[in-house]
Amino acid sequence: MAAPIKNKVKTSFTLRGVEFKNRVFVASGTFGYGDEVRTLVDVSRLGGIFTKSLSWKPRAGNPPQRIVETASGMLNSIGLANIGVHTFIEQKLPYLRALDTRIIANIAASSLQEYCDILGLLEEQEGIAAYEINVSCPNVKEGGLNFGTDCSMTGKITASLRKLTHKALIIKLTPNVTHISEFARAVEAEGADAVSVINTLIGMAIDIKTRKPKLSTVTGGLSGPAIKPVALAKVYEVAKSVKIPIFGIGGIASAEDAIEFLLAGATAVQVGTMNFVDPAISVKIADGLATYAREHGISDMGTLVGALDADLKFSVLQSWL
Ligand code: DHB
What we know:
Number of strands: 16
CATH architecture: Alpha-Beta Barrel
Distance between the termini: 57 Å
Number of domains: 1
Strand order of the largest sheet: 3-4-7-8-9-10-15-16
Bound molecules: 3,4-dihydroxybenzoic acid
CATH topology: TIM Barrel
CATH superfamily: Aldolase class I
Helix content: 25-40%
Low-confidence stretches: none
Largest sheet: 8 strands, parallel, barrel
Strand content: 15-25%
Radius of gyration: 19 Å
CATH class: Alpha Beta
């Protein structure tokens, strides 16, 4: 007897005219430049790879200790260590552009001019589908959170970059502000195509024997499953406030987690810290999403986006949105 035909589930979506084949991505800084893990992960199953943040010049990053394991998560203070945009173009982009997935270049900078210079240079290259703008690194003295916690600066960076590209601009927002939705509204108004919600939460760990901070920079960015409920609430808040798509990110470890983010209003998800536990987890999550869709008679994953069934009468958030 012939095997039953499996219903085909539509997993793709489009952003600024570019089709992404899946709603599951790997997050910046957790997947290197894709080459280290090439034998472990079938990246052609993913929507795309967000590169490690690229600065104009190479950066050595912060001194050790740069990573501390925490309950259900990790604290990092890498300090934007990266090879710099020129070496990226020479040594990594040729490999990346040949992959059967989309490449989203993540850009970090310590001045408005540096953001513009990096994006301008990347614009001349083939093989980049979109840009993610990191205005929210918690681990550097210049740029980083100084920009990402200043709503008018975040808007200004978006407006300046918008003038330089027709490709999708995705602004990665920090949760370390009072109302993340104000920032989402500001970047939407300046022409952003999407937002990534959320970057890491500022955290700290202390060695009680030495009474010293465990991280060289004292504080760092908390990520992993510990932050998932916070991230989900931020995605929900932003989804209620803007029309542009949201890349949900924060502690996603399973297909169930990814579905929660879609229901809260994310168009797609990024898997971050869990790549360090299992480099192939993103593909397993993509598989799990498709299985869920088939089991629930869903023909297009897009129908899950924002499909949360909530009684807004009881919503606390609603009162200040
Ligand atoms: C770094 C850490 C982050 O949490 C982030 O979002 C970006 C960069 C870093 O220290 O390199």
